[in-house]
Design brief:
Elements (H helix, E strand, L loop, with lengths): L2 E5 L2 E3 L5 E8 L7 E7 L5 E7 L6 E3 L7 E6 L4 E6 L8 E10 L5 E5 L3 E5 L2
Parallel strand pairs: 2-11
Antiparallel strand pairs: 1-3, 3-8, 4-5, 4-9, 5-6, 7-8, 9-10, 9-11
Length: 121
């Protein structure tokens, strides 16, 4: 059974930090690009960051560059999103996404249920 389970969300003051974790099971984690996607209240999904299967490449949306760091531990089937200098506009439900493109070009995706991050004083 495929599962992605996020944790680490919560309420934090502006300027604070949180570390989100996403534990994967039921598929070959080390083959997948891993993404974090967020959804703020009343808004659509917004891509945040991605990391390559081997962990050697990362990309971030401009709004979180230099504040967020994405990493993964393939031995633990886990991806981490370290979020520093949090701002109220970072408030959202954060979803973990696993993405794989087969040799034939088909896309396989898995999603977690999300973890709430609230940045407020």
């Amino acid at each position: 059974q495929v599962q992605l389970v996020e944790s680490g969300g919560g309420l934090v003051q502006p300027g604070g930090s949180l570390r989100l974790s996403c534990v994967a099971s039921g598929f070959t984690f080390s083959n997948y690009w891993m993404h974090w996607v967020r959804q703020a209240p009343g808004k659509g999904l917004e891509w945040v960051s991605q990391i390559s299967p081997g962990g050697d490449r990362t990309n971030y949306r401009d709004a979180v560059k230099d504040r967020f760091t994405l990493s993964r531990d393939n031995a633990k089937n886990t991806v981490y999103l370290q979020m520093n200098s949090l701002k109220p506009e970072d408030t959202a439900v954060y979803y973990c996404n696993a993405h794989y493109t087969t040799n034939r070009g088909s896309v396989v995706e898995h999603w977690g249920r999300g973890t709430q991050v609230t940045v407020s004083s």
